[in-house]
Amino acid sequence: MKLSVVGIGPGGKDYILPVAQQVLATANIVIGYSYYFQFISHLLQPGCECIGKDLTEEEARAELAVNRCEPGKHVVVISSGDAGIYAMASLVYQYASTLTDKEIELQTVPGISAFIAAAGRLGAPLGHDFCCISLSDLMTPWPVIEKRIQAAAIGDFVTSLYNPRSKKRYWQLARFKELFLQYRERGTPVAIIRQVTRPEEEITITTLAELSVEDVDMFSLVMIGNSQTYQFKNFLVTPRGYMARKPQSGQEIQDESFRQIAAQLKREDVTEADRWAIMRCIHTTADFEYEDLYLSNRDAITQWHNYLKEGGTIVTDVTMVQSGITKEFLKKYNASVYCYLNDEAVLPLAEKEGLTRSQAGMRIAIEKHPDALFVVGNAPTALFELCDQLQENRFSPAGIVGAPVGFVNVIESKLKLQAMKNVPYVIIQGRKGGSNVAASIVNAAFTINDK
User: Fold this and answer.
1) Each residue of 217-229: pLDDT tens digit?
2) Which of 131, 149, 208, 387 is a plausible cystine mate for 157, CB 3.0–4.6 Å?
């Protein structure tokens, strides 16, 4: 005994695959939705028994097909499109798997699904990742369907809708549109393909915002493009990639990195200059937490840009910060950067005053460059020294970058700087920071007009 589940395509006689025609020609019994027999009757052998059922009797069709299987008989269950996509194959196999008294030879014969046929009519809408969602909640709870709709929208999938609307299920498509508009542009291309491949075929191309729910019925498939899909003449085209060409040069890679970072930023309480500095911090760390850790005052980045382009002076606590400041920027504006950590006068001063080398280096720097931009990316003791000297009015810096990293006294040093209201600062709050982050903030100040 043999049982085949056969996909007969979307309706057009030329869309029934040859393998499906061959299987149908050997059938003794064919079971299916009554409406479908008009598409395959010419392929059946004389004497073949045809059993038509109503549209909603899928389970009854499956049970009947398995029960009619007898030795020497070939039973065929037909489905429109592909038998395995929202069709009869799963029901037939499920029912057959519950029986132990019959050894049935099962097979599924694929067919051209409606969304594949529709894609052919539309040209090239499935050039990238896509999904299909059925809006029928007869067998799937609506909350589950909503989760899938949101996932498809967020994931930017080209989305084909089966069972989009009927007389009894008239509200689901409107809800789908509402959900998709939360994540997709209003101008996203949408196609309504009705009676695809059949003589009554109609295709309407519109947009997500303009999609008219009333234009859709149970004979329609709706296809929604992704963020890259566009209309070309009467076609929809979805490029195979999200960029015409992947970034190759260093500048292209950097530009694309900044584009991706900018797309994910959320803070609205920062200036454009601060936003640029935040992006530079994230770019060098790949850590989006820096958006929340970043704190500045007095439009510091803009002030420092004006200071540096006039040949300003930068002092760093460690040589790694000094090395991270782009030499091209220093050369362009004739700016200078100094680090006194390894100066010959540091060790004697540190021993004499009971200071760390970082503190001693900053004390020497204050004497030599009292109006410099001071940048701390490593040692909290250096930041403490700057705050103490500032509190005693011993220098008037262009500003202070407070981004030491670590555990001991790191948070405290930053809080102390935050209390200094008379100096422009940028602080990376908490324990995070580091030489690369401190240098990135300076590089941001150099380049705010270049982005």
Assistant:
1) 999 999 999 999 9
2) 131
What is the architecture, at CATH level 2, of domain 250-446?
3-Layer(aba) Sandwich (3.40)
User: How far is it, in rounded angstroms, from Cα 250 to Cα 239?
Assistant: 25
CATH number of 2-112: 3.40.1010.10
Start-end of CATH 3.40.50.10230 domains in the chain: 250-446
d(CA 360, CA 348): 9
Query: How many other CB atoms are found less than 10 A from the CB of residue 253?
Result: 12
pLDDT of 250:
81
SS3 174: helix
Reference 376, options 441, 312, 285; nearest CA is 441
Q: Compute the distance between CA of residue 218 and CA of residue 265 in angstroms, rounded to an integer.
A: 42
What are the residue ranges of CATH 3.40.1010.10 in the chain?
A: 2-112
Integer Cα distance of 92 and 106 in angstroms: 9
Determine the residue type at 377: G
Q: What is the mean pLDDT of the chain?
A: 95
Q: Which of 128, 117, 112 is nearest to 230 (CA)?
A: 128
Confidence class for position 311, pLDDT limits 50, 70, 90: very high
8 A C-beta contact, residue 274 and residue 260: no
In whole angstroms, give the CA distance from residue 59 to residue 88: 9
Please tell me the CATH code under which domain 115-237 is placed: 3.30.950.10
Residues of each domain in the chain carrying CATH 3.30.950.10: 115-237
Alpha carbon 277 to its chain centroid, in Å, reads 24
The stretch 282-293 carries a mean pLDDT of 98
Yes or no: say if 297 and 326 are a contact pair by the CB < 8 Å rule. no
Task: List residues with catalytic annotation.
Answer: 283
375: left (phi over 0), alpha (psi -120 to 50) or beta: beta
Phi, psi of 191 (to 5 degrees): -120, 135
- DSSP state at residue 388: H
